[in-house]
Amino acid sequence: MLLALTAVPAWAAIDIYQFDSDAQQDRFHRLTEELRCPKCQNQSIADSDAEISQDMRERVARMIREGHSDEEIVTFFVDRYGDFVSYRPPFNPRTAILWVGPLTLLLLGGVGIVVLVRRASREAEEDEQ
Amino acid sequence: MSKGTNPWVFLPLAAFVALAVLLASGLGRNPEELPSALAGKPVPEFSRPSLLNDRTLTEELLTGRWQLLNVWGTWCPTCYIEHPYLLELARDGVPIIGLDYKDEDAKARDYLAEYGNPFREVIVDADGQLGLDLGVYGAPETFLINPRGEIVLRHVGELNQRVWDEKFAPVLQQAGEAPGVTP
Amino acid sequence: MAAELGHLSLWVAIAAALVLAVFPLIGVYRRVESWQRYARPLAWLQWLALTVAMCCLGYSFYINDFTVTYVANHSNSQLPLGYRLSAIWGGHEGSLLLWGWMLGGWTALVGLFSRKVPLPMVVRVLSVMGMIAVGFHAFMLFTSNPFDRSLPWFPIDGADLNPLLQDPGLIIHPPMLYMGYVGFSVAFAFAVAGLLAGDLDPAWARWARPWTTVAWSFLTVGIALGSWWAYYELGWGGWWFWDPVENASLLPWLAGTALIHSLAVSEKRNLFRAWTVLLAIVTFSMSLLGTFLVRSGVLTSVHAFANDPSRGAFILGFLVVVAGGALTLFALRAGRLKGKGGFKPVSREAFLLGNNLLLLTATFAVLMGTLYPLLGEALDIKVSIRAAYFNSFFVPLTLLLMAILVPGMLSNWKRQDGSPLLRRMLMLAPAALIGGFLGARLPGDTPWVGTLAIILALFLVFAHVDDLVRRSLAYNRGFLGGFRKLGRGYYGMVLAHCGLAVLVAGVTVVSFHEVERDVRMAPGDVAEVGAYRFEFDTLSEYAGPNFDARRGHFLVSRDGDAVAEMNPEKRTYRASGQVMTEAAINAGLMRDLYVALGEPLAGDAWAVRIYHKPMIRWIWLGALIMALGGALALTDARYRKRMARGKADADGEVVYE
Predict the structure, then answer these.
(1) Domain count along chain A
(2) What is the CATH number of the domain that holds A47?
(3) Between chains, do A89 and C342 touch, taking CB under 8 Å as contact?
(4) If we measure between CA atoms, which residue out of C450, C496, C530 comes closest to residue C220?
(5) Confidence class of residue A1 from pLDDT cuts 50, 70 and 90?
(6) pLDDT digits (tens, 9 = 90+) for C617-631
(7) Do B35 and C334 touch (CB under 8 A)?
(8) pTM, whole model, 2 decimals?
(9) Which of B2, B12, B23 sits opposite C298 (nearest CB)?
(10) Pairing verdict, β C591-600 and C584-586
(11) How far apart are CA C514 and CA A29, in angstroms?
(12) In A1-129, where do the E strands start and end?
């Protein structure tokens, strides 16, 4: 958002990473929060001052401006740094348990509750007699 | 009070045992080292100036023989510690190409002049973008590259005799290369 | 001298704990009452010894005794006094001493406030707490002694406290958290004591509940403080990172919330007792698990205290003994805890079961996500897990939880007629829907998830207000007359639930409507963020007590009116050389303005981060309200009445004598 008015005495601040649209800006924020700094103690490249993070942010910004999609950008880094660098874990047979686990608990728990409630309901009926 | 054990009461204990085993397995492991995601893939294309002369270096440089690509910089204290070992390897005939990572040319040349130059060539990567392409995240890092120009392995941290014996030598031996000998 | 005294005191403490764990308990099994009577005094002795130890460590910091390794590692002669003292818990060894001291404190308090509980039960509870204390003190004495001296060599000056920790937040956040973690040991002790006794007095839940609620309240405050502290201290405007250590505090909190609700059922209707006992064991085990994760080096985190596998092995062993032992006992004895009583599918009990299931699924998801990197290593995958994964579960589960909260709160115990319930909810729905749409649209375009969250939050608040008014009027003494009779337990519940709604509203609005800009600014430049205008006025330098700072002066205005002056800083701490970002925050109930200096660029320009964060304070406010609700609830009259035991009547209802 450059102020082009020369009549304004103060100079307008320039975005460090310049984009053509707000949508691109949003993508930049999302992607930099999703990519992990490879040498930090568990920080995204958005949250880290490490040099490698800065380099990665530069590259992400450049790739957005060049028109690459979010997928392409994440894949670019994953190809070079491995799955480790993305905070969105891939869904494959080995990582499936991340989702399957809690969902199974939810389902089994639900079934368990139904059984329990049925039994309790019967007991309540008996008590009322 | 009902008699007879409901088998479900053992479930929490069983789950806990599994958890404890998992936690125990994590002790003593270093959660920070990353394997190279590029293992088996060719070195990415690049075109960079050399630090030592007027040539423009490309990925061709890293084909034709087994060699090391060592990522270093004058700002990196561990690189300084590793430097004598690199000189030793070079004396034994191991080809090492240097990647001067996020550094200043003049400083780098002075450094090599003062401490010795183990590198057959040095690629300049001032902005770190070639490093990005290689999956570099710090220095020192050393890549082992085969004659076809493919990355075979990457070591993060100081390269010394122990690391060489444990990681690099076995690979070279398997490939039929006596470590340290140039074909 | 002080360090030696402190060390000695620790030995006294562990001796007291050991005797407490064994001797009075034998008195229970052998029915020798005089032996049982030693339990309370022993608890006090332990705590006294630990207090002496704490004072000794504090004194060592006060006089800058750098021959003590721990003091040398975490302090500095230029460190302001307040931080010198709170550095007691700034590192691994000292924080363990804090844990131990609090555990001793809770043990003594349980002894003090349990006059109406039968003595054998008190003994069992204190005994179990003594056993836990033995483990912690042993950990300290044998692997992590804060009183170790580094003589004959010692540094002239200390290494300084990590600048990140030189902050008022440091003084209060760990103590609050630990009060929570440690407090759950009381519920655990009650649970194990019950299992040991082989039967649970029906009043058991009433004894255990206030202790659990107060621990939960402290933990809520502790977590909120941590979030708030990270927000203003780290300089990136974030308030929750799903970092393993943060998750470690969330796990006992989620399980603990399930526990206090399950205790409600056990207290009222003597049901779910085995389940409640299990939850108590699980909750405290989560506290211990968190301790393990933070200190063993098993997971990477910005917070991790210590990265020592040998210490990790000790804690793991401890965890195995405590949790494994308790769960084995549970497996063997749970069958004896079956309660009598039924309830219909539409009833408060049923909805609370739903509450427990959702909370436990959330706990499990957080556990999975936090520990998966470990599992991945075993399977040779290196993966990173963060917001994307956790939110995919947390968001729907929270929405579901809020959805069943209202019918659950509105339902009677045992059986609730469906049609009146439905009618009441439908009456409240339109207001919530309209309010929700408006509320979600006002700041801008909100995705349907956010709109749904706001609608549910409003629904929640309306339902509680409506219920409160109805109940007050039902006494036919006018609103205030009836209101006074409702009881603190009820007020607490209303407050806590509304706190949740406030929190959810804050999270929703700030997550979907925050604005961030990274700009390059030199003095004289102006940036527009949202409706606000930020002018970088001047850049100055100054020297602080133990740091040197560069400070930017920003003038903020809106529509021409001056709003604030903001002064972000970049500080270099002299002793360690570490550079810290001190963000400038202009706080408001409806929005925060946040300015932080990034890196210096060419010339006198800086990379500046400017944020507009709407309703972010609601997050911490909501958490505080929740904690207050808990605090209020536990001072309910019924916990203070002179009752010793309860009896379950024919229906399963508990009747208290």
Answers:
(1) 2
(2) 1.10.8.640
(3) no
(4) C496
(5) very low
(6) 999 999 999 999 999
(7) no
(8) 0.86
(9) B23
(10) antiparallel
(11) 11
(12) 11-12, 14-15
Q: Please give the Cα distance from C322 to C326 (Å, whole number).
A: 6
C343: containing domain:
199-305+331-403
CA distance C384 to chain A (A): 5
Contact between C298 and B27 using a beta-carbon 8 Å cutoff: yes
State yes or no: pLDDT of C110 exceeds 50. Answer: yes
Of A52, A78, A79, the CB nearest to B137: A52
- Looking at the structure, tell me whether residues A103 and A83 fall in a common domain: no
CATH number corresponding to B47-174? 3.40.30.10
Query: Is B29 close to C377, i.e. CB distance below 8 A?
Result: yes
Q: Which of residues 585-644 of C touch B (CB under 8 A)?
A: none
Q: Touching check for C474 and chain B: CB below 8 Å?
A: no
Contact residues for C178 (Cβ-Cβ < 8 A; gap 6+): C95, C98, C99, C102, C222
Reading the block at residue A71, the tokens are 């997928």
Give residues with Cβ within 8 angstroms of B154, minimum separation 6.
B35, B36, B38, B39, B135, B141, B142, B143, B144
Span C424-433, average pLDDT: 89
Which among A55, A73, A111, A123 is the top mutation candidate for probing chain B, defined by the most B β-carbons within 10 Å of its own β-carbon? A55
Confidence tier at A85 by pLDDT (50, 70, 90): confident
Tokens of C24: 């009075």
CA distance to A96, A99, A100, C379, C536, per residue, from A93 (Å): 5, 11, 10, 12, 52
Contact call for C342 and A125, based on CB within 8 A: yes
Average pLDDT over residues C576-581: 80
Which residue among C387, C389, C414 sits closest to A98, beta carbon to beta carbon? Answer: C389
Of C354, C525, C526, the CB nearest to A113: C354
How many other CB atoms sit within 10 Å of the CB of residue C514?
20
Q: Is residue C30 part of a domain?
A: yes
Chain A: partners with 3+ C-beta pairs within 8 Å = B, C
Residue B182: per-residue pLDDT: 42
Give yes or no: residues A96 and A79 share one domain.
Answer: no
Q: Do A78 and B35 touch (CB under 8 A)?
A: no
What Rg value do the Cα atoms of chain B yield, rounded?
Answer: 23
Residues C484 and C391 in one domain: no
Percent of chain C having pLDDT more than 90? 52
Q: Determine the structural domain holding residue A103 and report its residue range.
A: 91-129
Do residues A51 and A102 both lie within one domain? no
| Nearest beta carbon to residue C342 from set A16, A95, A123 | A123
Q: Which of A26, A98, A123 to substitute to test the interface with C, most C CBs within 10 Å?
A: A98
Position A7 confidence tier, pLDDT thresholds 50, 70, 90:
very low
DSSP reduced 3-state for C555: strand
| CB-based contact A79 B38, cutoff 8 Å | yes
**Same domain for C101 and C47:** yes
Q: Name residue, tokens 């004894």.
A: C207
State ipTM.
0.84
CA B26 to chain centre: 24
The pLDDT mean for chain B works out to 84
Mean pLDDT of chain C: 88
Q: Report CB contact under 8 Å: C234, A10.
A: no
Same domain as A22, residue A51:
yes
* Mean predicted confidence (pLDDT) in C120-149: 93
Interface test with C, best of A106, A113, A126 (most C CBs within 10 A): A106
**Residue of chain C minimizing CA distance to A97:** C368
Highest mean pLDDT (candidates A12-16, A90-94, C325-329, C444-448): C325-329
How many contacts does A have with B, using Cβ atoms within 8 A?
38
- In chain C, how many domains are there? 4
Residue C584 carries which side chain, given as an amino acid letter? A
pLDDT at residue C383 tops 80? no
The mean-pLDDT minimum among A47-51, C140-144, C379-383, C538-542 falls in C379-383
Nearest CA-CA distance, residue B150 and chain A, Å = 14
